[in-house]
Amino acid sequence: MISMIMVLNQKGDIMISRQYRDDVSRAAADSFRLQVIAAKKTGDQAPVKRIENCSFLYTRHVNMYFVALTRSNVNPALVFEYLFQKIRILKAYLGEDFDENSMRNNMTLIYELMDETMDFGYPQNCAVDVLRLYINLGNIRPQDEPEPSQLTSQITGAIDWRREGIRHKKNEVYIDVLESVNLLLSSTGNILRNEVTGQVQMNTKLTGMPECKFGLNDKLVIEKESSGQRKPGVEIDDCTFHRCVRLGKFDADRTITFIPPDGEFELMRYRVTDNINLPFRIIPAVQEEKGQTKVSINLKVIANFSDKLFATHVAIKVPVPKNTAKAKIKNSFGRAKYEPEQQAIVWRVKRFPGKAECMLAADVDLMPTVRPKAWSRPPINVEFQVPMFTASGVHVRFLRVYDKSGYHTNRWVRYITKAGGYQIRI
Q1: Could you tell me if 272 and 234 are in contact, meaning their C-beta atoms sit under 8 angstroms apart?
Q2: Which of 205, 238, 262, 314 has the fewest C-beta atoms lying within 10 Å of its C-beta?
Q3: Cα 302 to the center of its chain, rounded Å
């Protein structure tokens, strides 16, 4: 596993080092300084360097290098995750833009953090909230200092993202399902790319140590539970979870079970590529005149979502040639104008009703050029946000909260779909 952690400045001098195993020495830092820092190869090569049977894995923050040394065949993803967590912890203690001076002024604190976050080369507790309970700067005391018995369970227990004894007057859970639609349509109308990436954000205000069970309309789960009477579920291609989720339980029966952190956190991310309900259908017609003095643009936009919903912050950017002089625009609603800095006609609609159809017609006058050049025709870009709508069809089926006291929990769910890369070639 990891034999040594070093922090070097931009000259290659060791500021701080902590040795966890005796198979490497500080002399190895000289090799790293000469072959990586002095050679100025930190930007154009992979952040893994093999020198004299020793692997150096490093990342940079401001003008400092955080370096992990090992002689064993470690998982590099684990090492980099530890280095990134180490920087995140130092940001929490020393500030977002901590530098060499702030590191030198807090040596004792940093050595304490090094000992608590790693033992014999194995990463340990890297949760900032738990570390702050028993490691502070000396002049800052935690608001509610835990009992020694609680402290032991916090350090050694499996649930380091939530401490015991949390109390709330109202027990509430807020769930946000946020989706981004990525579409690339060819000029002939063929779909080149079509996928939805989503995330489930939660804000929990729950008393005690509750266990939550969360359910989506996942196709695999619904096929198990139903006898063909329910609506078909959504086929989720891949998903990643917060570390509080019990992955063994999910692998066994696709149930998402977890003890949530207190406050805001991201429960999961997912991706869907099949049966996507596109919020907008856009039909462009662009015609260039033979003399290259005019371009006529006709655009039809159809909202595919329910007429009970509406889209906000809709912006459709229709590209025009670089030598555009002026544009005469007619549109059914919203505001459209030619914006030279964007080289596009930008059509903005504050509130776009569902099932609505609207048209835009533009006659673009071009300035004559000495050397006529063919227009590259960049794609139309669309931005939008549709509340209470999911393009993938994913929705929350249930959230059950189990606690010893059996208190009542209020739950709120919100859905928002926005444009990721929503492009139509012309």
Answers
A1: yes
A2: 238
A3: 30
What distances in angstroms separate CA 60 from CA 42, 76, 84, 286, one per listed residue?
9, 16, 10, 49
Question: Which residues in the chain show pLDDT less than 70?
Answer: 41-43, 137-158, 222, 224-231, 291
Q: What is the pLDDT of residue 147?
A: 55
Short-list 85, 39, 44, CA closest to 61: 85
Residue 297 to residue 32: CA distance in whole angstroms? 60
User: What is the three-class DSSP state of 313?
Assistant: strand
H or E element that contains 248: helix 247-253
The angle subtended at Cα 289 by Cα 283 and Cα 294, nearest 5°, is 85
| Single-letter residue type at 46 | A
Helix (H) or strand (E) holding 213: strand 211-216
- pLDDT attached to residue 150: 54
d(CA 204, CA 265): 8
**Distance (Å, whole) CA 203 – CA 51:** 47
Give every strand in the sheet of 54-61, ordered side by side: 14-19, 4-8, 64-70, 54-61, 48-51
Confirm if 303 and 280 have CB atoms less than 8 A apart.
Answer: yes
Strands 344-353 and 335-339: antiparallel
What does 85-151 look like in DSSP terms, one character per residue?
HHHHHHHHHH-TT--HHHHHTTHHHHHHHHHHHEETTEE----HHHHHHH---SS---SSPPPHHHH
Return d(Cα 339, Cα 345) in angstroms, integer: 6
Amino acid at 416: I
Copy the structure tokens of residue 42. 């930190």
**pTM of the shown model:** 0.71
Sheet of strand 324-331: strand arrangement: 280-288, 294-303, 357-366, 324-331
Q: CA distances (Å), 45 to each of 41, 48, 57, in order?
A: 6, 8, 12
Enter the DSSP assignment of 340: G
User: Residues 195, 273: contact at Cβ < 8 Å?
Assistant: yes
In this predicted model, what pLDDT tens digit does every residue of 122-151 receive, in sequence order?
998 888 877 887 787 644 444 455 555 555
